[in-house]
Amino acid sequence: MIKFITAKTKSQHRALIDQMHQDRKRVFVDWLKWDLPVTGDKEIDQYDTDDAIYIIDVDAEGNHVASIRLLPCSVPTLMAEHFADMVQSPVPADDTAWEMTRLCANPNVKDKLAQWTGRKNITVAAIEFALMRDIKQLIFVTHSSWVPTILSVGWDIELLGLPRKDGADSIAAMRINVTPETLALIRRNWGVKESLLPAEEALSAVA
User: Fold this and answer.
1) How far apart are CA 186 and CA 192, in angstroms?
2) Which Pfam families does the UniProt record give (predicted)?
3) pTM of the model
């Protein structure tokens, strides 16, 4: 099940938000060794603001399975402030482009299929929201090792510039061009037959 959380609804989902931040610390700080700010047992940064929207896949007990953070490019974003040198193709600094960051799966979920399903669900829900909000582009940074897998989906996606070294790996900035065809293709390729976005919650964010 997908939860769609905004500044207006965050207080209703405090335990779930805490789980998400705890899992982000486990994945990004403890496992990947990223140099990120930590508050207690949670990874929270300067982009976890009231402008952020969280799309979270939860299990039958309501626990965090996978999540992603969305931010409009009209406000400060991770890409604009830390990865601008990687972007050779212009990205609008307005609400027609949104950044996706902190895609995180719960490391305690041992069922890899459940983790993968959670990742797929939040990605599809993000595209559904983008279409509802008339967002034209979703931008993100990923490890270059993931690029072939991302491209293999067959959607309308492109590199924003050349990859750059990041420790032992390299990273790449990418853009999804959001269209009804993009959503139809990803649903078909990933076997998602119905809308995943909680319509009432998403519509309240659009208003």
Assistant:
1) 8
2) Autoind_synth
3) 0.92
CA separation for the pair 33, 100 (Å, rounded): 20
At residue 75's C-alpha, the angle toward residues 74 and 81, to 5°, is: 110
Considering just the CA atoms, what is the radius of gyration of the chain in Å? 16
Instruction: Write the DSSP assignment of the chain as a string of letters.
Output: -EEEE-TTTGGGGHHHHHHHHHHHIIIIIIIS-----EETTEE--TT-STT-EEEEEE-TTS-EEEEEEEEETTS--HHHHHSGGG--S---SSTTEEEEEEEEE-TT---HHHHHHHHHHHHHHHHHHHHHHT--EEEEEEEGGGHHHHHHT--SEEESS--EEETTEEEEEEEEE--HHHHHHHHHHHT--S--S-HHHHHHHH-
How confident is the model over 40-96, as pLDDT tens digits? 999 999 999 999 999 999 999 999 999 999 999 999 999 999 999 999 877 889 999
Beta carbons of 127 and 176 less than 8 angstroms apart: yes
